[in-house]
TrEMBL record:
It holds the Pfam family DAP_DH_C. Residues 152-352 form the 2,4-diaminopentanoate dehydrogenase C-terminal domain. This is 2,4-diaminopentanoate dehydrogenase C-terminal domain-containing protein. It comes from the Bacteria. It comes from Nocardioides baekrokdamisoli.
Length: 360
């Protein structure tokens, strides 16, 4: 058996703590370093920060150069990027310039950046990869596996595809990300609050890569512009979530779509239904069971519908959402290290599995 990959985990937040646990769980990975942004965490053992209740023998640091000096095979990067897109891309480029392969949960627009006007950054990523042999792959659950690998695998069963729709349908009441929930989505804000996500073109930037990657995987040329649709709903009573308080009359639920058309007809649709209470908007799609799901629907021949759900062993679907995001990254490490240099999309990778994770 070959030596385990030497891996650095980058952050210890809601995803990062599961990254640490995931690296520790795989016998073919070795955690050799851990980066933290909070100076209060420096020197604390990774196992404690990951809430494993035991030491892993790796102390957290905020010294990037010390981590580079370890010469890791891969960085699993799960730091928050939604509010620092361009700074985050500079970080990822720096990792590649150091000759370190990277799997990252963001910025999600790098899942498939074609058509986003980011050619200068993509060129720098590819140039750094060409110079050092390192690769970068950005993925997760959504954008990520639930709307790239899962629908493309399902498409192998189709005779004719008239439309493919990939959906997230979830209750975010227990989703802990105050910046995302408050500033980016605008939950708990007045209905006229200019939340970032609802500004023209932002949905196309954030989730357009999902639509365009599916189009590339299905070999279909979409019309030049994607269509954005947003429907926001105010709370009819005060609500409390783990991230924000939602007063009656402020934003409490949203459904948005990013639609790729061919000659004006919808062919590939990204559909998100986000509630903060299960009773909201019963006319919108709801999961067949549980409090959240990812759904893939094919209209054509045959008609196909697949619903993927997850739930934490000791928590809800928002806890397990962080786990599946983390593990999509961790379990991709070997494939990314072995792949061609530069930016990799889901279309570039071989099958990624949970090899080595079956309980013994």
């Amino acid at each position: 058996m070959s030596a385990p990959l030497r891996v650095v985990a980058w952050s210890t937040g809601t995803v990062g703590k599961h990254v640490i646990a995931g690296i520790d769980a795989r016998p073919d990975l070795e955690l050799v370093g851990l980066w933290v942004s909070n100076p209060d965490k420096v020197g604390i053992d990774a196992g404690r920060l990951a809430e494993l209740h035991r030491d892993l023998g790796v102390a957290a640091t905020n010294d990037k150069q010390a981590l580079y000096a370890l010469k890791p095979d891969c960085i699993v990067h799960s730091a928050m990027t939604d509010d620092r897109l361009f700074d985050a891309m500079e970080d990822l480029i720096e990792f590649l310039e150091q000759g370190i392969n990277v799997v990252s949960s963001g910025p999600v627009l790098l899942c498939y950046p074609n058509g986003l006007g980011l050619d200068a950054y993509v060129d720098r990523i590819n140039a750094a990869g060409a110079a050092t042999g390192a690769s970068l792959h950005v993925n997760g659950i959504d954008p990520g596996w639930a709307n790239d690998v899962l629908p493309l695998a399902t498409s192998s069963l189709a005779l004719r595809i008239d439309e493919v729709r990939v959906s997230e349908i979830a209750d975010y009441a227990t989703y802990y990300q105050p910046v995302v929930m408050g500033d980016i989505y605008g939950f708990g804000k007045p209905m006229d609050y200019p939340a970032m996500l609802w500004q023209p073109g932002i949905l196309t930037t954030a989730w357009g890569p999902v639509v365009r990657q599916l189009a590339a995987g299905l070999d279909v040329e979409l019309d030049a512009d994607l269509i954005e649709k947003v429907e926001r709903v105010a709370a009819d009573a005060d609500l409390s979530t783990v991230s924000v308080e939602i007063a009656a009359g402020t934003m409490a639920a949203v459904r948005f779509q990013v639609i790729g058309t061919v000659n004006g007809t919808p062919r590939i649709v990204l559909d998100h239904v986000t509630r903060t209470h299960p009773d909201q908007c019963p006319e919108w799609p709801t999961p067949a069971s549980g409090d959240g799901c990812y759904r893939v629907e094919f209209t054509g021949e045959p008609m196909m519908r697949m619903e993927f759900t997850h739930h934490g062993e000791h928590g809800d679907h928002n806890v397990s959402g962080m786990i599946v995001t983390a593990m999509r990254l961790v379990n991709s490490a070997h494939a990314v290290v072995g792949a061609k240099p530069g930016l990799l999309t889901a279309l570039d990778l071989p099958t990624v599995s949970g090899r080595g994770l079956v309980t013994r």
